[in-house]
Amino acid sequence: MTDPPPRRRFGAGVVDALPLWLGVVPFGVVYAVVGRRAGLSAWEIQVMSLLVYAGGAQFTAVRLLAQGAPRSVLVVATALINLRHVLYGLSLAQPLREARPGLRGVVAFFLVDESYGLGTRAYLDGRGSVAYLLGAGISLYVAWNVGTALGAVVTAAVPDPRSAGLDLVFPLTFAALLAPLLRGPANRQAAAASFLAALVSVPRLPGGAGFVVATVLGMLCGLRAHD
Amino acid sequence: MTETIVAMAVATYLTRLVGLLGAPIRGGWAVRALALVPVAAFAALTASSLELRTDTWFRWLVVGVGGWLSWRGVPVWACVGGGIALYVIGGPLFR
Question: Which chain A residues touch B14 with a CB distance below 8 Å?
């Protein structure tokens, strides 16, 4: 059987990311509303989504702005919150080794938690590719920016998506991506350690430190099970 | 503000690029460790959206059902849709 062409893989990535729009668009709206309350213009809010494209970091930035934090703190916080992407990149370097550096540079721009999750699962299922990763990443990028644009022009009060349970889209997606990987003692121990550590460390450690600590701890526990 | 946004964009992009542009890591424990990144990251991402409080038990149940469906071979989109439907329908009764 021949491999599907890149265009079809790209389309598969776009389509597989569509259920996540349910969570991404409302949070884009909320981000924009919070940004406006923090004193940013609609233009600045949208440019941040277009250029930064990192929901957690953007929420943190507008919160810090509202508290009057210096702008240098925003940049440092952004880098810390996004440190987990280094791990994602390292784990994708092997499957992407054949891709040109320029193309890897494009993939890097669209690499977020959700596109990493979908892309990695696709690789593990034997249907992953650069085109798929880009499709998923661009689909989510459009969703985030559509949500931001809606939030930037909406003047009425916006209900919190959490009250409708739409924030559950994210843990549901990651739980669904995780479950089929729970085979073998190394993966199970890594998942259990990382899950428990994240429950404790994410609310307590600033920036993205709790997530990085939990992930590395999970990897170490998984390695012990290998040995 | 524009300069700050551009600096934030550069900081974000560099964290995404640095791992991807490096040579693939080879040999022994490092490869085994990197193979565990997806499972460890997905577990941490799932947990970071949940809270250790008794009044959030229904959210835990919904996420657990989503994971179980996926374990049974249900596609991700259906797990997400099924979980949200369960929350919307069961929420008024159990939340």
Answer: 79
